[in-house]
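Hi everyone, sorry if this is the wrong subforum. Our group has a chain we'd like a structural model of before ordering constructs, and none of us has done structure prediction before. Sequence below.
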Amino acid sequence: MAVAAVIGAALVGAGALGGCTPPSAPAASANAQTADAARPATPAARPPAQGAGPAEGGEVAEEEARLTKEEVARVLALVAKARGLPVLREVRSQVLARGEILARIRAHVEREIPEGVLDHQREVLAALELIPADYDFTAGMYRLLEGRIAGFYEPDDQTMYLVDDLSESEAEETLAHELVHALQDQSFSLGKLLDYKAGEGDRLAATHALIEGEAMSAMFDVLVGSAFQIDEAMLRKLVAMSTAMSSVGDTPLVLQESLGAPYTDGFEFVQALRRDGGWASVDAVWRALPETTEQLLHPEKLAAREPAVEVAVPTAAALGPGFRVVFDDVMGEQALRIAFAAYAHRDAAIGAAAGWGGDRYAVVRRDDAQDPTRREFALAWRLRFDSAADAAEAAKVIERRFGKACQRRAGLGPIAWTARGSDVAVVAGPYERRGGGEASATGTCAGAKAWLAEVMKGGVGARGGSGEGKKAGK
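Answer:
Right subforum, don't worry. Here is the predicted structure as tokens:
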């Protein structure tokens, strides 16, 4: 699982496409006044009173339903014209209370994401000290989502859902954003693209960002006349600020960043494509989707179809009998940026992640046959960079957080890392959880170092493409 897809995968799995729309001020950029004046004089998507729309368990007045349907059709036509996609069918809509929206998302996650995936994602983040050891990741994710959700489009039932407590401007933005998703689904079958697949977190994150970035770009075309009036750097800051403001006090930064990344990174990607060749360039990407977030973050890598390095799943024989891999995935460059941003300044994190070539991490677990509430966890992570210099730059970020020697941690056990040539490896744990609760160390630094040597012996492939010198913006 990619860290950037921690929230993203859950949102996509829940069909929460466009679950967090940007701040109400159109990009709140340096061009905000011009953008406001450029808004088309179309009827706003007014948020009906709670219970309006064909929500479950409530009756709706025929006049209200008719007006809502007309508004949807009107804005759908505007969005279709701006994006250049055909309207193939009417888009159904429902307005639901915030709690009802969240309940639908929870149900979808439980139905579509295999049992244990979110728990194992928690262990990845905890082991790397990206969330506190005792943080309830799943509950925190839903709290963050509840504060940010404005609406979503569900491919399964081809219905757009809006929260009933939005202001007029928020509802207008959300309606336009979600209707882009409806058009994407009609032309490109989003449901098939967004199905959870084990070991494909980075690919899913790239697809999610394309989907959200296109929706942002077309939405701004409708709302402010042209998405090119939007300052991309300012939008990134505002999305981060609005997410932070709507978060509860204990929400880790990595979760906040993960929620916003598909929108901001995706918007920059789509804008780059449009500058190069208009919406036709975006259409071409739909026919050959990015395979990695590296390709998303570096459009020249997409053009070259530079593949990721294939890294074998780390093994854990050095930990002793009973430990087995229970979860593995690719972090990817986007997730690496977010993780490194928890250890260093954002600019340093971006630079250190830019040399990413490939990676694979594994959560390993040992169950206690005598006590089913007792489990031991550990994490191994192997990365390949484009050059030894790139690996050294990443190593500096890791060293800044964890030092040079193995660190003993009271709760999460030892953490050790090494860099050799173009390769970096990190191991963390083992540590024990009883009943999924507080962590307590069980491993030693001697054991961690032995495991680290094993992980560094694992298989790493090669890749084609330009490899060296891809650090755009450095």
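For your construct planning: Confidence is low (pLDDT under 50) at residues 1-67, 465-474. The chain has 17 helices and nine strands.
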